[in-house]
Design brief:
Length: about 750
């Protein structure tokens, strides 16, 4: 799949990039080193490799990962692995003054600074996508010859480290994969001495450490490997040699230019400033400060850029950050919510390129001839493909077959087209997968005896009985068939497959049935239990992330969805609360969505697996706690906040549809809607005052503006008279590709 054909890249948004001198800095900061990896260390990542730094004074630990480093194989689940650690041991005491540890989301640069004996010490950390290295810079601003430390490298599996002059190397072999990582130390001034297991620096002015690693994983290969230890060594060495030829200044400049191009597209200002107190105090004692909401929203975008760019794999259960070899749920790809939630904010939060690893993963595995996903379908005498719930990177899939996940994955493939309108991508990448996925359900659906097609023997993750025609399956299959028909229309496909699809779609049960106490029914036969607080909202797929339930489509179903949500309650694990934020936003209840967001931000220190409502929330480093750490909650919260700000509806783009009263004044820039539109919106006292929409594709713009009076329009031919207004609040107007249109409101 050629990235140039699949993704629009930078053309998707320009209007959100306007310079704003008053942009509020987005940063996490602390006045002491991290003590626990999961709860307080800070992440950097370039989409493929990542690291966590602790910020110790006398001893610093930088733990690092490569997203493709797994044990296991096609027949063994295995687990995501810790690649290794760098340890810096300084010839200084632990005691210092002016200590500060921070992570700038605006620059994707971490830093640690402190003073000892009148000397200021500074460290900087970033993961460069252009140069494929993690960079650690040590300096003493205003002083020379003050850096004295030793550096050693440790394999995550207790393997041996080779030290050769100023380079340290770890390498090894797991069940299937081979791996290697190298760290290169570049000193400015002073002396460097190589010992058996470490590199010693004395009297240096500044030091740059470059770190990179790789495996021989290859998603497209039948055996998931390409090359051997030698080819890995050559790849890693070439990366390091190329990066080492650049100065630190040039490495950082390339990193900043690359990263800012993505991150700076979106700004969210809720009329709050960077607090003077630390981030852990912000979460523990000042959770109602709107800066936390701004920061948490942008943190999800930061983590997406850091864990899902290029490479061969989507973000896993922890993105790509993991410090153990037996992580909870193996840091796998759970198909019943988790990997999907990881990509909910990709389009609306203006990170379309970050979708590529997930789309490539689904396309490759679904279409791999004789691959494990196809084998699951063949065992059921079906065409196409299907998966179980737990999945490693080698196609191995186990624990409870989750057939509707194939439809769920396909909604993501369609969504990428719906936002970008890239027909080449739709034709070459999405369509083949959509088609064979529909064929799987052609072969599996059965008549329920009343002329409706239902999926037999399905579940509602992760509880209850297995029955025919459960809401989870029916709603997802409905979305699959509907979106595939839309794709066929775009591509002008009208063949026997489309004819069959139309016939089956017309007879498909849509999964929307109202139960005895006014709820969207979860099962067909078993009676739903009122007050069931299960964390999954599987019977509400049609509300979010799909679109079949809306007050603009059918009030009865929307009210039934509300009743079902009320029954689930506001408690849950971290990611589940994030899902509920989005659901309540879809129901235009900003106050309830905000309340759930605040509960999703409950501080916790629990690091073991727990389903206790009181244990879920966030750690002081803002990682989402299931617990333990699961990154899907971070991404889900970003998506939920975006849903409070902008929604795609049948009547047009609905702006600030679920704004809570505590966010009564603010603005955002750069949020995206379907059909290639990007929005900047300002509001005061809870009402929109200004809006600018940028059109990337020249489509007709359709807005849903209920109870809004338009004062003026700039850019639309004929001004106010150039708008087509419909009594239900819908406004439409033609656009040209590359142009912006500004509205002001009464």
């Amino acid at each position: 799949m050629g990235a140039g054909k699949c993704f629009l890249g930078l053309a998707v948004c320009l209007c959100g990039l306007a310079a704003n001198a008053e942009r509020v800095p987005m940063k996490l900061w602390y006045d002491e080193p991290a003590k626990v990896w999961m709860t307080s260390a800070l992440p950097v990542g370039n989409g493929e490799i990542g690291a966590m730094f602790f910020g110790g004074v006398a001893k610093e630990q930088v733990q690092f990962n490569d997203k493709t480093l797994w044990s296991g194989n096609q027949n063994k689940r295995g687990a995501y692995q810790n690649m290794g650690d760098l340890f810096f041991e300084f010839d200084t005491p632990e005691t210092c003054t002016n200590y500060r540890r921070e992570l700038s989301l605006d620059d994707a640069v971490g830093s640690v600074s402190y003073t000892i004996g009148g000397v200021d010490y500074l460290r900087e950390y970033f993961a460069s996508n252009p140069d494929s290295v993690i960079v650690v810079r040590l300096s003493t601003p205003g002083n020379k010859g003050k850096l004295n430390f030793s550096l050693r490298m440790q394999d995550g599996r207790q393997g041996k480290t080779r030290t050769d002059r100023q380079t340290m190397t770890i390498s090894g072999t797991l069940d299937l994969l081979s791996y290697e990582a190298q760290a290169l130390l570049k000193a400015e001034g002073g002396t460097v001495e190589t010992k058996s297991d470490r590199i010693s620096v004395r009297g240096a002015n500044a030091v740059t450490v470059l770190l990179t690693g790789a495996t021989n994983f290859d998603l497209a290969s039948d055996n998931y490997t390409c090359g051997d230890a030698r080819t890995i060594h050559e790849k890693v060495s070439a990366r390091l040699t190329k990066a080492a030829a650049k100065s630190y200044k040039k490495l950082k400049a390339a990193h900043l230019k690359d990263y800012r191009t993505l991150f700076s597209r979106v700004e969210l200002d809720l009329n709050a400033q960077l607090p003077e107190y630390t981030t852990d105090i912000l979460v523990r004692e000042h959770k109602d400060n709107a800066y936390l909401d701004m920061l948490y929203f942008q943190y999800g975008r930061y983590l997406m850029i850091g864990s899902s760019r290029g490479g061969l794999l989507p973000s896993n259960l922890q993105g790509l950050w993991n410090n153990v070899n037996n992580p909870a749920w193996q840091c796998d790809y759970h198909s019943n919510i988790n990997v999907q939630m990881n990509y909910w904010p990709a389009e609306v939060a203006n990170l379309s390129e970050c979708y590529e690893p997930f789309i490539r993963y689904v396309q490759t595995e679904a279409l791999k001839q004789g691959g494990s996903w196809q084998q699951v379908a063949r065992k059921e005498n079906c065409r196409g493909w299907a998966v179980h719930t737990q999945n490693n990177i080698f196609g191995y899939t186990d624990w409870l077959i989750n057939r509707p996940a194939n439809a769920w994955y396909c909604t993501h493939l369609w969504q990428h087209y719906a936002y970008t309108l890239n027909k080449d991508y739709l034709r070459e990448t999405a369509w083949p997968v959509l088609k064979v996925t529909c064929q799987y359900w052609f072969d599996r659906l059965k008549d329920n005896g009343n002329g409706k097609l239902i999926a037999p023997n399905e579940w509602s993750p992760e509880h209850g009985p297995w029955e025919d025609g459960v809401a989870y399956a029916q709603q997802l299959i409905y979305a699959l068939f509907d979106e595939t028909l839309q794709a066929a229309d775009v591509l002008n496909v009208d063949d026997a497959f489309v004819t069959e699809l139309k016939d089956k779609f017309a007879r498909l049960d849509n999964g929307l049935h109202i139960g005895s106490w006014g709820q969207i029914k979860e099962w067909t036969v078993q009676e739903d239990t009122k007050g069931d607080h299960q964390r999954h909202l599987s019977h509400l797929m049609a509300l979010y992330p799909c679109h079949q339930i809306s007050y603009l489509i059918n009030k009865q179903y929307a009210d039934a969805a509300k009743t079902a949500l009320d029954s689930r309650g506001d408690g849950a694990t971290g990611w589940s609360r994030a899902w509920k934020v989005a659901c309540w936003a879809r129901l235009w209840d900003g106050e309830r969505a905000y309340r759930l967001l605040k509960q999703a931000q409950n501080i916790t220190d629990v690091t073991i697996v727990s389903m206790d409502d009181n244990a879920g929330g966030v750690y002081e480093n803002l990682f989402c706690a299931h617990p333990s750490f699961q990154i899907d909650g971070n991404f889900g919260a970003t998506a939920g906040i975006a849903e409070m700000m902008l929604q795609n509806t049948v009547k047009g783009v609905h702006l600030i549809p679920a704004l809570p009263s505590v966010w009564s004044n603010g603005y955002y820039k750069g949020l995206r809607a379907k059909n290639g539109f990007t929005f900047d919106v300002t509001w005061a006292n809870g009402k929109m005052t200004d809006m600018t929409v940028y059109s990337a594709a020249g489509q007709e713009c359709k807005l849903y503006l209920p109870n809004v009076s338009i004062r003026s329009v700039k850019g639309v031919k004929g001004g106010l008279d150039g708008l087509a207004k419909i009594s239900d609040g819908t406004v439409t107007f033609p656009t040209e590709s590359g142009k912006s249109y500004r509205f002001s409101f009464e």
